[in-house]
Amino acid sequence: MEYFKIRPNVAGGLGKNTVLERSVHPPIVTKLHYEVEGWFGDVIVATFPCFLVTEETQHALQKMGFSGATFDDAEVTTSEECQEDQPGLELPPFVWLKVNGKAGRDDFGIAVPFRLVISERILDLLEPLGIPFAVVEPYDGD
Q: Other C-beta atoms within 10 Å of 51: how many?
């Protein structure tokens, strides 16, 4: 099976209600608050060190079965700038994608230096759902 490095769109950042341990790298997040600054349709978004997917994507992943990640709740809000720049924006529900797999073995994994790696079958699922602003490159195990 082929694997790919994916850099999801950074649609926002860590919000004020995020709880994290900064004494380690990458920081360990125990509660995620994602504040959207602008969203243009990607079903997977990121901010270091977290990834989120839409609930629709979560359900599609659960239906197909996958390895290397779990889901958790996340608080998702929009920034004042987002509300001004995209008035009336209705975000789909997002969930936290907690990646714990091995890059190049599991469907989701993290490679050095903190790059998300996905299997070809995950890419095949994500593309039709919508990842127009993600950067995808082949992963060769480096």
A: 21
Domain that holds residue 40: 3-138
How many domains does the chain contain in total? Answer: 1
Other beta carbons within 10 Å of 36: 23
Nearest Cα to Cα of residue 43 among 14, 8, 3: 8
Neighbour tally for 71: CB within 10 Å: 15
Residue 88 makes CB contacts below 8 A (sequence gap 6+) with none
Read off the pLDDT of each residue in 61-77 and give the average, rounded to a whole number: 98
| Alpha-carbon span 142 to 140, nearest angstrom | 6
Residues 141, 95: Cα–Cα separation, whole Å? 28
pTM check: above 0.90? yes
The whole-angstrom distance between residue 98's C-alpha and the CA centroid of its chain comes to 8
What percent of the chain is predicted at pLDDT more than 90? Answer: 92
CB 13 within 8 A of CB 127: no
